[in-house]
Amino acid sequence: IQKRIFPEAIRLFNEALRINSNHLNAKHNLAYALIETGKHEVAKKLLEEVLAANTNHLDANYNLANIFKFYGESEKAEFYYKKAIKIKPDNPKAYNNLGNILKDLGKFDEAIDSYKKAINLQFNHANAYHNLGNTYKQLGYFEKAISHYKQSLKYQPFNLETLSTLLELSKEVINQDLKNKIHKIIKEKNL
Q1: Mean pLDDT of 27-45
Q2: Quick check: helix, strand or coil at residue 57?
Q3: What own/partner pairs with CB < 8 Å and gap ≥ 24 does 128-131 have?
Q4: For residue 111, what are the contacts with CB-CB under 8 A and spacing of at least 6?
Q5: Mean local confidence (pLDDT), 66-80
Q6: d(CA 179, CA 181)
Q7: Which of 104, 103, 65 is nearest to 84 (CA)?
Q8: Which of 7, 150, 176, 185 has its CA 20 to 30 A from that of 132?
């Protein structure tokens, strides 16, 4: 239903910009509506115009980071998420998204710190717990990963991605425990 309002919003924001082409919030809001309709390149240009006029426009920094994330330009996304966090340090979504970018860049310790900051700001941030679990899983810390997936499910109990990842990882841990026990018995019995 919400997607239906964006074409009308785009029309109205364009009209507002015809009246006052320097209205930063109208530019930003037009950019956001364009992002939601898949017109990332036009949105990117508008956000860059907003930031040229006001480098501390929180939402423009955050949404430009999202566009760079969409295009796979992780270093640029990292820059703009960090800038958004500098402007508003109590933004759990920005910390969570920054964590995803840092993980993609292989900066695992920084990613973990970023997810933890998101959780400290919003204790029930299910996505941050899930992403922290993914990071620990990728690093081979399966027990920590399982613990964070369980935390995520406390706040989003029907998240199928978290449920399936937790189930898969639990099976893997059980199988590894069984293998270790078998190897220990073989070693002890000199088989």
Answers
A1: 95
A2: coil
A3: 128/92, 128/95, 128/96, 128/99, 129/155, 130/156, 130/159, 130/161, 130/162, 130/165, 131/96, 131/99, 131/100, 131/103
A4: 99, 100, 102, 103, 131, 135
A5: 97
A6: 5
A7: 65
A8: 176
Say if CB 17 and CB 26 are below 8 A apart: yes
CB-based contacts of 8, cutoff 8 Å, min separation 6: none
Structure tokens at 162: 């978290």
Global pTM? 0.86
Helix residue ranges, H only, the chain = 5-19, 24-36, 40-53, 58-70, 74-87, 92-104, 108-121, 126-139, 142-155, 160-189
Task: Quote the pLDDT of residue 1.
Answer: 37
* Structure letter (DSSP) for residue 23: -
Cα–Cα distance for residue pair 150/54, rounded to 1 Å: 42
